[in-house]
Amino acid sequence: MDRHQLEVARKANNLTETFVQLGLRDWPTLLNHHLGFAILAALGILVAVLTPFVGMIVCCCRCAGRCGGRTDPYEKKRDKCKRICNGVFLSLLVLLVLFGLVASFVVNEYIEQGVKEVPSRLNLAVDDVELYAQNTKKTLNRTPSTSRKRGHCRSSGRALTDT
Helix, strand, or coil here: 89? Predict the structure, then answer.
């Protein structure tokens, strides 16, 4: 897409339609520019289509007695303990994920509030820097004259010349 086409689309207030038309007409160039995203999208679609079919095949095999399916399940000596430990571990993982989810929402809210306050805080910071520069300039202009009047410079000069 060149600048002329963008300018025409912006003047016509139909930039989205222009992008769609150019994408349909110039799709090889668009694909070359976004090859990584295209591969990921294709893999995602492939997984979304194949997962139900694979699940249905495994379910049918297990119901027919193949693929590890048994009609008379038997329990070993420690199966009950394993089941309880796995359940507790799974519950702790779910609580950890839930905590992470709640924490992400809280952090998102704080970040949103912080971003809204950036312009005002930036203005305050610039004002503070200007005030610091002015006060430093006043202090530098005032310090030598007041030190000479009070005699501080003579005593420090004498200490320097004695050594």
Answer: helix
Work out whether the CA dihedral 136, 137, 142, 145 comes out positive or negative: positive
Q: Where do the domains of the chain lie?
A: 85-142
Cα 121-127-129 angle, rounded to 5 deg: 105
Q: State the pLDDT at residue 52.
A: 94
Q: Tokens 């310090």 map to which residue?
A: 143
Considering the entire predicted model, what is its pTM?
A: 0.36
Contact call for residues 67 and 58 (beta carbons, < 8 A): yes
Other beta carbons less than 10 A from residue 133's beta carbon: 10
Indicate the SS3 state at residue 137. helix
Per-residue pLDDT reduced to its tens digit, 1-48: 556 666 666 666 655 655 666 666 666 777 777 788 889 999 999 999
DSSP 3-state of 105 = helix
What lies within 8 Å, CB to CB, of 60 at 6+ separation is: none
